[in-house]
Write a structure and sequence with these properties.
The protein is an alpha+beta fold. Helices cover 38% and strands 26% of the residues.
Length: 269
């Protein structure tokens, strides 16, 4: 037999750890010296300790190891830990990809005006209308007119809080003129439909979000950044882009302070 100090050296573990294993019933000493109270271990227990260490080094908790040592089926415990580690690894790989993207942009000398984040957008009720407008400047006329039409048909209708309105482009390509788009605005409930305006439920979505401050004429830069981020971070586009308007002429902001959020529905490749 070996005293605990010798056994700890042979097993490459600390005396404190062996005391802990004894207290929780994971590895009791073979005997205790009646005169000194010293714990005594055998070479057989060295193999038991080695099994415990192998399970701990695989990432199992002390409680999980104790369950296996006590006779529990190891398969589901190991499978559960494997799944947890795979999720942790995926999260770390995702973070590494984001850091690599930032470093690459820094090395290319790109400014850091844009940042991308993943957001989970909840489902929401909206009123919406599909329209073809002559150019982007027409938004300043057609969107307020649309709001007035909805209000006239639904005087008690309330917008959602916080407010959320967005445009989706339906042409499938960038166009300067004759742009087919769908305008949507979140509301608390469905209402009376009129003049091509419909009420519908927009499903929840995972999106890459990029904030753009300034003129709408510069929005292509934000779109390009968003697409590059999607391609380099292991995602694919999974729906129509949303152009969400947070600050604009209606809120009294000057053009340089307009705030628009580009939302790109995505899914992992």
């Amino acid at each position: 037999m070996f005293y605990i100090g010798e056994f700890s050296k042979m097993g490459k573990t600390t005396i404190k750890t062996l005391h802990h294993y004894d207290r929780i019933g994971l590895l009791h000493p073979e005997a205790v010296d009646g005169a000194t109270g010293y714990r005594l271990y055998t070479t057989r227990q060295l193999a038991e300790l080695h099994r415990i260490q192998s399970l701990r080094q695989a990432g199992l908790s002390v409680e999980e190891v104790a369950a296996i040592v006590a006779g529990a089926d190891a398969q589901p415990i190991l499978a559960r830990r494997r799944d947890e580690i795979e999720r942790e690894l995926a999260t770390r790989q995702d973070r590494l990809a984001r850091i690599a993207f930032m470093i690459d942009n820094q090395e290319k000398g790109y400014c850091m005006d844009y940042q991308a984040t993943i957001k989970e957008l909840p489902s929401c009720a909206v009123f919406s209308k599909v329209m073809t407008v002559p150019d982007y400047s027409a938004y300043f006329e057609v969107v307020p007119a649309l709001g007035r039409a909805v209000k006239a048909a639904n005087p008690d209708l309330k917008c959602a809080t916080p407010e959320y309105c967005f445009i989706e482009y339906l042409d499938g390509e960038y166009k300067e003129h004759d742009i087919t788009m769908k305008y949507s605005e979140a509301v608390e409930s469905f209402g009376v439909e009129t003049d091509g305006i419909v009420f519908e439920e927009v499903p929840a979505a995972t999106v890459v979000s990029v904030m753009h401050r300034g003129s709408y004429a510069d929005l292509p830069s934000a779109y390009a950044f968003a697409m590059e981020w999607v391609e380099q971070n292991g995602y694919r586009v999974a729906g129509l882009f949303r152009e969400s308007y947070i600050e604009g002429v209606w809120s009294g902001a000057t053009e340089s302070d307009w705030l628009t959020e580009i939302q790109v529905p995505v899914e992992k490749k």
